[in-house]
Amino acid sequence: MITETPADLARAAATVISEHTGTAQHDVALVLGSGWGQTADLIGETVATVENTAVPGFTGAAVAGHTGTMRSVQITGSGKRALVFGTRTHFYEGRGVRSVVHAVRTAAATGCRTIVLTNGCGGLNPDWAPGTPVLISDHINLTGESPIEGANFVDLTDLYTPRLRELAREVDPSLDEGVYVQFRGPHYETPAEVRMAKVMGGDLVGMSTTLEAIAAREAGMDILGVSLVTNAAAGISKTALSHQEVIEAGQAAAQRCGTLLAQIISRM
Question: In this protein, which residues make up the domain named Nucleoside phosphorylase (predicted)?
Answer without folding.
Answer: 28-265
